[in-house]
Every structure is written in structure tokens, then in C-alpha cells.
Design goal:
Elements (H helix, E strand, L loop, with lengths): L2 E5 L2 E3 L5 E8 L7 E7 L6 E7 L4 E3 L7 E6 L4 E6 L8 E9 L4 E4 L3 E5 L2
Parallel strand pairs: 2-11
Antiparallel strand pairs: 1-3, 3-8, 4-5, 4-9, 5-6, 7-8, 9-10, 9-11
Length: 117
């Protein structure tokens, strides 16, 4: 069982920055992809960005050039640096750990990001 602990959400003004962190514990060695998804009120959960153990990244078009995902394999931690934040980035952000060899997903509890003046 993998546990994910997120931190770093909060309230920020438009144009500001935030950094989210997510630490995974209980994971076994092997391929995995970690990432961030978000869900705004009344909307479906959507992909923000993912990164695998080989550091290959994938971003939603809406965040390309503004958000950067990175990871520390030694700590099994993933980070999301969010710059030039917009009100439409407001959502609950969820950390995800995906294990391809048995197609299992684990989710964090979510952290609120609010972009407002």
C-alpha cells in the first residue's frame, strides 16, 4: 500500500507562484509514474502533469510553460512548481502514484490551490 502526503497549497494572487510537494511511502522498487491532477468545483478531475522514473514528463496544454514537474527518486517525492498562476488554476490538486506493472493508482488526499485577488 502506497501512502501519499501532499503539501504546499494555499491562496495566491494572480501572477503568483506556489510549489506543491508529494511524498510517497510504502512503494516497492520498479517503474512508476507520479503526477498531479486537479478538480475544480463542478468539473471532472483532469491531468495537470506527470513524470516517470526516467524523468519523462507530460503536461496539460493549459499549464505548459507555466508549471514544472520534477521528482526526487531517492525520496520518492514529486514536486509541482506553479508560476504565473491564473484564477482558472483554482482547484483541489491531487497527487497520483501509478504502478504500470499491475495497473494500480494511488491518490493523495488533495490540497486546495486558490488563485484570487
Amino acid at each position: 500500500q502506497v501512502q501519499l502526503v501532499e503539501s504546499g497549497g494555499g491562496l495566491v494572487q494572480p501572477g503568483g507562484s506556489l510549489r506543491l510537494s508529494c511524498a510517497a511511502s510504502g512503494s516497492s522498487p520498479g517503474p512508476n509514474t507520479m503526477g498531479w491532477y486537479r478538480q475544480a468545483p463542478g468539473r471532472q478531475r483532469e491531468l495537470v502533469a506527470t513524470i516517470n522514473r526516467g524523468y519523462t514528463t507530460n503536461y496539460a496544454d493549459s499549464v505548459k510553460g507555466r508549471f514544472t514537474i520534477s521528482r526526487d527518486n531517492g525520496k520518492t517525492t514529486v514536486y509541482l512548481q506553479m508560476n504565473s498562476l491564473k484564477p482558472e488554476d483554482t482547484a483541489v490538486y491531487y497527487c497520483n502514484f501509478y504502478r504500470p506493472w499491475d495497473n494500480v493508482n494511488y491518490w493523495g488526499q488533495g490540497t486546495q490551490v486558490t488563485v484570487s485577488s
